[in-house]
Structures are given as C-alpha cells and as structure tokens.
Amino acid sequence: MFNRRSASVLAAAAITTALGLVPVGTAQAAPQAACVWQKTAWELPTGTNDAVLYGSDGNRYGVGIAGTMSTTFPYGIKNGLGTLWDNGKPVLRLSSSTTVADVNSSGLIVGTDYVNGTYTAVKVSSTGTKTALPSNPAWNGSNAKVINNAGDIAGVASIGTKNVVVVWPASAPGTYRELPVPSNYIPAVDDIDEQGRIVGITNAGGFVIDLNSQWHTLAAQGTNGTGSPNAIRDGRIVGSIHSDTAYSEAEWDSQGRLVRTITNGAIEARAIGGNGTVGGLAFVNSSPRSVLWSNGVVSDSLSATSQFFQITAISTDEKKLIGNDAGYPSSYTCS
User: Fold this and answer.
1) Whole-number mean pLDDT of the chain?
2) Is the separation of the CB atoms in 300 and 33 below 8 Å?
3) CB 151 within 8 A of CB 102
4) Buried (b) or exposed (e) across 47-75, using 16+ Cβ within 10 A?
5) Share of the chain above pLDDT 90, in %
6) Which among 22, 86, 160, 255 has the fewest CB atoms less than 10 Å away?
C-alpha cells in the first residue's frame, strides 16, 4: 500500500512535468478551517531511528515497522520489526517473520507470518498473542491486510495460479469466506469499512466488493484511466484516477460509480473522517503536501503542518490526523 501510494505521487509529478503544468491545489478553496493543529511525534522503540506507519484505527492505535535508517543502497529501513503504538508510544514489537498491515480500535493487529514454510494470515492481540487465521488446505498461502473495529478481517489467498479475496468474519469465529475474483485479476486489498465492504486494486484497476459479495470495478475517466482506492467509510470510497494524460483525486459510491473528481493539482485522497472530510495529497506551490477537502474543495490547507506529513487516517470526530512525517509516525490534534 505504502509503496503504491508513493508511486502515485511520482506518477502525478511526471504527468505534471510532461504537460508543462504548475498545479497549485484546488483553485476554488474554501476558507481555512478553524483548527490549530498541534503535532505529536510518536516515540520510536529503543535502538531505532526510523519508522513507517502502515495502518491505524484513526485514534489510539497504529501499526508499522521501526528499525534503523539505511544510508546506503538499498535505502529504507534496516532490521525493521512490526511495531504497535498506543497513543504514540511503542508497546509491542513482533518477530522478524511477522509482517503487520492494520490494527483496529481494540488493538487487534492483522498481518502475515511464515508458518511451516507457508505465508499465513494471522492476527495478533495487543499483548502479543499470535493466532493463525482459519485457512483452506488448498491455499498456497494467505495474507490479512485490513481489519475494521468490529473485528472483520479481509485479505487474499492464492490457490494454484489463481487468487481469491478472503473474509474472516468476526460474527463467525473460526470461519472464512472466499470471494471470487474475475479471471486473470491479481487483487490486493486496501481497506474495509465498518459494514464489511472491501476495496482494493488489481492489475486491471480498482474494485469494491459490496455487502452482497458482488464485485464492482471502480469507474474511471480518460484514455486508459484507472481508479485506485485508498479508503472506504460507510460505503464512500476515495482514492485517485490516473490516465495517459491526467490525474485527479476521485470519490466513488458503494457500487463503484464515480461521484466526484478534483483536479487542479489534487493527487489522491487517502482517508475519510466521520463527518465526510477527505484527507490526501495535492500540489501546493509545486510541492505535494497534505490537505483536507470538504464537498470537493479545500477546507484546510494544513499550512501549519510539516510539508512531509502524509495522512494515513482521520479520526471519527475529525479532531485528529494520523500519518507519517519524515521518519516518524505522527499525529496532529485540533485545538
């Protein structure tokens, strides 16, 4: 997820250069919101100096990896271990075999572990108890990518040369459901909302699986346009559309129908708050930075936040923004 989102920023920048544009954000900006955002840089585990946040419940918990910054190629985080943060403090470190992906409001982590020679979807409690999720003996492997606050988990399993989306429902512990994927599609799951709708991306574009387990391709615009979702809340999907000649922030309904696009430098949406505010990236004075949109226009330019801050989640009351900020998971609280 993180890599795909980073790639979309680079792609947008390349399009901008090719077209000779200097985007400056949404021209019809609304007045800046009343929030004064106060930053809290989350603590790093002892012996580490770099971290990346992968998932958050939007309030208390966050998961990602923490390790040491590599100063030589290949760049990135060395010796990174899955880490759980609770109110900005690291409270759990996982083994090197466990890859973390998301966490819910109970502190329940989902991810993947290498078990008996197979990559296996797992859940991990906030105290470190790890449990393999139920699986089909026919699977070559599985991963758990997202979890909602109810405890529903979604991910992907491989069966031979095919892949299926899998749901482990909280209402039926010990069970799973395999959801069919169109032929020749390779799915990756990006988010699940509280009702159980799932969004993700394939080699052919974005998708949403509705409450009836029906697959819908996200509508797109332009030549070879592709919709890429990043988040879903109460059936509202946000992400981006990229085509051969343009890019935009995009929003869809629960059936994958396009509701809105934002251009003028808007790159992509990444999160949705409980009141419908959307957070994402836009070019401002030729540099990509985080902004908030309401009803299609910038409602807060977040000019007081770090230019390196990238939103991962917005709290339900929209008083907290959580994300990554130059090597540190961080949060900004409205005061």
Assistant:
1) 90
2) yes
3) no
4) ebebbbbbbbbbbbbbbbbbbeeeeeeee
5) 83
6) 160
Residue-level pLDDT at 115: 87
**Pair of tokens at residue 276:** 């419908």
| Per-residue pLDDT band at 189 (split at 50, 70, 90) | very high
* Residue 81 token pair: 């271990």
Q: What is the pLDDT of residue 27?
A: 38
Residue 259 in tokens? 């509701």
For 76, the token pair is 């990135």
Sheet bearing 198-202, strands edge to edge: 188-192, 198-202, 205-209, 215-217
pLDDT digits (tens, 9 = 90+) for 236-279: 999 999 999 999 999 999 999 999 999 989 999 999 999 999 99
For residue 250, give the amino acid letter: A
- Angle made by CA atoms 188, 193, 198, in degrees to the nearest 5: 30
Q: What is the rounded distance in angstroms from the CA atom of residue 314 to the CA atom of residue 318?
A: 6
Mean pLDDT for the stretch of residues 312-317: 98
Residue whose tokens read 């919709």: 227
Q: Which residue has the tokens 């559309």?
A: 241
Return d(Cα 324, Cα 53) in angstroms, integer: 6
Largest CA distance in the chain: 56
Q: Which amino acid is at 286?
A: S
